[in-house]
Specification:
- By secondary structure, this protein is an alpha/beta fold.
- 29% of the residues lie in helices and 23% in strands.
- The strands form two sheets. It has a seven-stranded mixed sheet with strand order 3-2-1-4-5-9-8, with helices on both faces. A two-stranded antiparallel sheet has the order 6-7.
- α4 links the parallel β1 and β2.
- The model has no long low-confidence stretch (mean pLDDT 96).
């Protein structure tokens, strides 16, 4: 399947899902408030050349949507590509304790399995092998991103990942070309204490390499000049498609 077709079907699925969410709006919790299906636009910008047909190779395979919010993207992959989907998030930090994902699974008649897993405390994924893991917007919420990425490289062929990065430190020191990370104070970056490590681009690429991944495609969105780790108007995001390196 070419990506243009996938994108159009994803947008149609999004509209249908938004309508369903409005119709069955729960009284005891709120849906995740951000548009996770909008990641399809970033994946469109990310994928180049033959990788624009990569989703066709995932049809029917087992995939994991990790840090899934309400699981919208995972449910799309199940509906469109026939993927076996594991929807994974940490319930205490998920916006609605994963009640949204479970409610949607029931509404859609989905066979996707919803799992509560704290990746910092344990690493027991439901399956031994995945065609791909979707790891979008989660990396900077992990206390130990090296451990998690290394473990994923042993369990998945591909990884779609996005995370915030920074070109300068808060004091203006340039870090883009240095393999470093900035550890946020709990009050920085939207006053969200679940935010931890913001990497420079060089640091992120080294992290991928040392945890067993090859960068296949890479792009950035958002602030393109002097992005920093904490300012809302200087937020830059990196998106990457990674391929697991062969076992040594």
């Amino acid at each position: 399947m070419d990506f243009e077709t996938l994108r159009e079907r994803a947008l149609a699925f999004r509209e249908d899902l938004l309508a369903r969410k409005e119709k069955i709006a729960p009284s005891d919790f709120g849906w995740y408030p951000y548009d996770t299906m909008a990641n399809i636009f970033h994946l469109d910008a990310l994928l180049t050349g033959p990788r624009r047909e990569v989703f066709g190779t995932l049809a029917g395979t087992r995939v994991a949507d990790i840090g899934a919010a309400d699981g919208d993207f995972g449910f799309f992959l199940e509906a469109e590509l026939g993927c076996q989907v594991d929807v994974i998030d940490n319930a205490p930090t998920n916006f609605n304790g994963l009640r949204g994902a479970r409610r949607l699974a029931a509404e859609l008649g989905s066979s996707a399995e919803v799992h509560e897993i704290d990746l910092d405390a344990q690493f027991r994924l439901p399956a031994e092998h995945y065609g791909a893991v979707f790891f979008l917007g989660l990396l900077y919420h992990l206390k130990n991103p090296f451990f998690v990425l290394e473990a994923l490289a042993k369990r998945a062929d591909l990884c779609f990942v996005s995370t915030r990065i920074a070109q300068v430190a808060p004091d203006g020191t340039r870090i883009q070309q240095q393999p470093v990370a900035y550890l946020l104070d709990p009050a920085e970056a939207n006053n969200d204490a679940t935010n931890f490590w913001i990497f420079s681009e060089a640091g992120l690429r080294r992290l991928f390499d040392r945890t067993g991944w090859e960068v296949v495609d890479f792009t950035t969105v958002g602030c393109q000049q002097d992005s920093d780790p904490r300012s809302q108007d200087r937020d830059e995001r990196a998106f990457a498609l990674l391929r697991a390196k062969p076992a040594a």
